Structure to design on (888 residues):
């Protein structure tokens, strides 16, 4: 007879390991840091902008942010009189991971003290919710929320030195919000080149999240290795596509709009790395798909119905909270497939509803809001107006000088125009055509190839006439 | 339903060793499912081989002695579920003396259906795949349309069925054909793994002469040998509780071989083939043993143990088996494997809610949710832990090495108590 130790459980285990999963994801982030270094440091340096500091900035961000995370967790355990070794923090609490993610999703000009603060908040949020595995919110996003929303005025913006000089506007989504949601290719994509720039990541945005190409490669790798819940990014991006498509079809916008929505605002980075964080995302397959749909809907709602430009960060945090509900529902309704299907259908209907609300929001902007009389000078029978109004490129993009002589328009001058096709107005002699048809503007055709600009021009003239005859 | 999972394991040769001379045999008076037997012999009685020594009174199902000799004072011993059970103990006199035959050998052709079922009962044939369910109850049904032979043996390490097939494929096929004839079943399907080339070859040698017997190959993945999946893979049929609802009987291939010996020699089931393997065993092999022998005695006669760190002694396979405190474990009819393996126990990490256990669960329950709600009774009921077949895939797949199945087991008990 021989005695043996007794153990409950099964006796062979798969090669899956949580530690491997976590550090594999970190390794996948290395190309992102390299890209961030190239985009924010090396490329501007080649073009003669920035300095050596900018080349190392992304690396400094990652290092500081992750070290702060490590320190905070170490101190947290120390204060709780439950001292843990550094090895424990690396191998069982994964203390550096929130910091690394955080450093990649904040603006490049964030001051270092703000990163330290953000990383502290990120790690604290994780520890206060019970530590690794128990946190309900993605710690990196909590930290980023503090930096980019609450301290947004202190971050110093998303543009690196090269972009500051070459691209005057901010990130694509901030630009869209600032220009009053005019959904045109010229307004949204042109300032940044083509959609290819969006794809390769050559657009203003957070430190390491702009390259959609890298995100797609990472997604393929992580899915192949079974390291992430791949259903979430798929249903997330799918929902964005469907909502954008509905907007495209109903409002006669080109299909480029779908790509614009997917490729901007760090959406793919969020979808692949943030929304799939195992701890804070739904457990079941069905829950993951439903979660992705909700996530996509919230992102679009935030982008187009609220003044906040970047919707990904907040929507994933909301999604983290909804995950609790989704998991709870799975608990309650396990195998009652009918009820789950009803919920699924409800969600689809909701997302369609919200997409219609969004498109109304986009196009029902009244021109009255933007028409402005800058000056009106009356001398005998001559009245000189200086007005500005909405153009194709946004609010106040057209500024005109209009002269009335004896109750008739005798001269129109374009003082300023942000329009792309201003020269077409001249080449078509459109201003003189307006003068000729001033009493019958409705019958004057617009110029094909610059429909909107000519249309907006007529609107401004009409408003000025109304004012004159008042 | 989730896809089964392939698990690598070492393969043994198809050779079957014999160790059929145990010094003492132990007949436990309760089986692993908790069904009790009433003993019919007392201390000091001389017991013949094949004599009924205990009976399950509810269904009048006997257990036989596997040796001849005197019964000695009973004590408690461990069986495959880890419980200590009172036993009838017989000291082997190695004479293999049979009681005077009451039944003469009967021609197989003269068996009627009732004879056959009665014979299954009095010879104590049970499912040798591990269920320990009396076989006569399974066959006691009219209108059986299919006889499925489960030769999948999907749990890693276990290969006794494979060895039985390799050595006795012709007898097995003959028996299947006899059963079809006696029971008036139109068709039999042998289900086996597609990687099990030796079994496929063995069957293919003889199967041509039996037009009613077919083969069906399934992927080498766990838990494809689960009855429900065998039926689903072979026939595409799903059933509610038992396959007999749809006119299907599933028998393990080793059970069929036991039926062969029963039909041929009219003798009760007293021996079985068991796999003894694992890194902690010197001579890994399949071995034919007496029911009631002690595992320790068999292993000592097979060159004993190898020195490994933290050895665990497991009755059953690595997925569903139980870890035993000692190697004095009684070989019962349901025990198909003894495994001595290193304790791979790793300190478990916090659950990261990756959902992998939900992904692999063959019965579509959510082990992680059951684990997280283990103290919330209402939630537990909604999560259906009672559906769990304890296959252990959730514990196998868990990246944090949490013994998820144990939580589900406890929940199962809790829900059952109501």
């Amino acid at each position: 007879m021989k005695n043996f130790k007794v153990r409950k459980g099964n006796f062979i285990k798969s090669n899956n390991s949580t530690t491997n999963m976590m550090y594999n994801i970190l390794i996948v982030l290395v190309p992102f840091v390299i890209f961030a270094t190239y985009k924010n440091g090396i490329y501007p340096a080649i073009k003669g902008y920035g300095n050596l500091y900018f080349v190392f900035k992304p690396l400094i961000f990652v290092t500081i942010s992750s070290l702060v995370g490590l320190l905070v967790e170490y101190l947290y355990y120390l204060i709780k009189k439950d001292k843990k070794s550094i090895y424990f923090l690396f191998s069982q609490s994964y203390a550096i991971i929130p910091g690394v993610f955080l450093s990649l999703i904040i603006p490049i000009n964030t001051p270092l003290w703000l990163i330290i603060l953000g990383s502290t908040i990120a790690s604290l949020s994780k520890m206060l919710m019970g530590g690794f595995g128990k946190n309900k919110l993605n710690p990196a996003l909590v930290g980023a929320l503090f930096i980019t929303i609450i301290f947004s005025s202190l971050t110093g913006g998303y543009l690196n030195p090269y972009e500051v000089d070459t691209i005057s506007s901010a990130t694509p989504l901030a630009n869209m919000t600032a220009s009053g949601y005019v959904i045109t290719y010229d307004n949204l994509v042109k300032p940044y080149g083509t959609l290819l720039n969006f794809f390769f990541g050559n657009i203003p945005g957070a430190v390491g999240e702009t390259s959609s190409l890298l995100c797609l490669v990472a997604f393929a790798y992580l899915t192949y290795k079974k390291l992430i819940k791949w259903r979430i990014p798929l249903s997330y991006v799918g929902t964005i596509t469907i909502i954008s498509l509905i907007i495209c079809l109903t409002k006669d916008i080109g299909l480029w709009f779908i790509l614009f929505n997917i490729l901007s605002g760090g959406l793919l980075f969020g979808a692949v790395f943030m929304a799939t964080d195992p701890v804070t995302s739904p457990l079941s397959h069905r829950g993951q798909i439903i979660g992705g749909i909700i996530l996509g809907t919230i992102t679009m709602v935030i982008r187009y119905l609220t003044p906040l430009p970047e919707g990904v960060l907040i929507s994933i945090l909301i999604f983290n909270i909804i995950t609790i509900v989704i998991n709870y529902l799975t608990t309650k309704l396990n195998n009652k497939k009918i009820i789950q299907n009803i919920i699924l259908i409800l969600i689809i209907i909701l997302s369609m509803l919200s997409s219609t609300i969004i498109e109304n929001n986009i196009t029902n902007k009244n021109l009255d809001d933007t028409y402005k009389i800058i000056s009106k000078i009356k001398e005998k029978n001559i009245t000189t107006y200086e007005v500005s109004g909405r153009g194709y490129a946004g609010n106040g993009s057209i500024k005109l000088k209009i002269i009335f002589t004896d109750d008739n328009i005798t001269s129109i001058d374009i003082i300023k125009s942000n329009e792309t096709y201003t020269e077409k107005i001249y080449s078509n002699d459109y201003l003189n055509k307006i003068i000729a048809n001033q009493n019958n503007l409705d019958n004057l055709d617009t110029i094909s190839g610059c429909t909107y600009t000519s249309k907006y021009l007529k609107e401004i003239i009409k408003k000025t006439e109304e004012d004159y005859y008042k | 339903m989730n896809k089964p999972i392939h698990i690598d394991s070492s393969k043994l040769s198809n050779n079957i060793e014999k160790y059929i001379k145990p010094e003492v045999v132990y007949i436990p008076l309760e089986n692993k499912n908790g069904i009790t037997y009433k003993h019919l012999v007392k201390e000091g009685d001389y017991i013949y081989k094949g004599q009924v020594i205990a009976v399950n009174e509810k269904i009048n199902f006997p257990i036989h002695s596997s040796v001849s000799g005197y019964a000695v004072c009973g004590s408690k011993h461990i069986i495959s579920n880890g419980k200590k059970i009172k036993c009838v103990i017989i000291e082997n006199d190695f004479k293999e003396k049979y009681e005077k035959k009451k039944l003469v050998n009967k021609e197989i052709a003269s068996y009627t259906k009732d004879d056959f079922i009665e014979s299954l009962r009095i010879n104590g044939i049970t499912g040798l795949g591990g269920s320990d369910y009396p076989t006569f109850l399974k066959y006691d049904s009219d209108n059986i349309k299919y006889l499925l032979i489960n030769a999948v043996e999907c749990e890693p390490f276990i290969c006794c069925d494979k060895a039985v097939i390799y050595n006795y494929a012709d007898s097995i096929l003959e028996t299947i054909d006899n059963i079809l004839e006696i029971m008036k079943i139109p068709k039999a399907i042998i289900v086996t793994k597609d990687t099990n080339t030796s079994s496929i070859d063995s069957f293919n040698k003889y199967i041509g002469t039996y037009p009613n017997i077919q083969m069906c190959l399934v992927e080498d993945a766990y838990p494809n040998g689960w009855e429900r999946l065998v039926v689903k893979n072979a026939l595409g049929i799903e059933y509610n509780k038992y396959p007999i609802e749809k006119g299907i009987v599933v028998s393990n291939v080793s059970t069929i071989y036991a039926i062969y010996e029963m039909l041929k020699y009219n003798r009760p089931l007293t021996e079985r083939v068991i796999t003894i393997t694992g890194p902690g065993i010197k001579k890994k092999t399949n071995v034919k043993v007496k029911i009631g022998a002690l595992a320790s005695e068999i292993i000592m006669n097979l060159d004993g143990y190898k020195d490994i760190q933290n050895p665990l002694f497991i009755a059953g396979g690595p997925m569903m088996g139980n870890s035993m405190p000692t190697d004095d474990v009684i070989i019962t009819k349901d025990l198909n494997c003894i495994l001595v393996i290193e304790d791979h126990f790793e300190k478990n990490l916090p659950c990261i809610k990756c959902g992998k256990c939900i992904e692999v669960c063959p019965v579509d329950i959510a082990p992680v949710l059951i684990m997280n709600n283990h103290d919330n009774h209402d939630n537990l009921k909604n999560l259906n832990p009672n559906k769990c077949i304890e296959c252990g895939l959730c514990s196998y797949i868990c990246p944090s090495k949490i013994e998820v199945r144990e939580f589900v087991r406890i929940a199962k008990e809790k829900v059952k108590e109501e």
Q: What stands out?
A: The first strand of chain B starts at residue 16 and ends at 19. Chain B has twelve helices and 18 strands. Chain B touches chain A through 58 residues (CB under 8 Å). The first helix of chain B runs from residue 113 to 122.
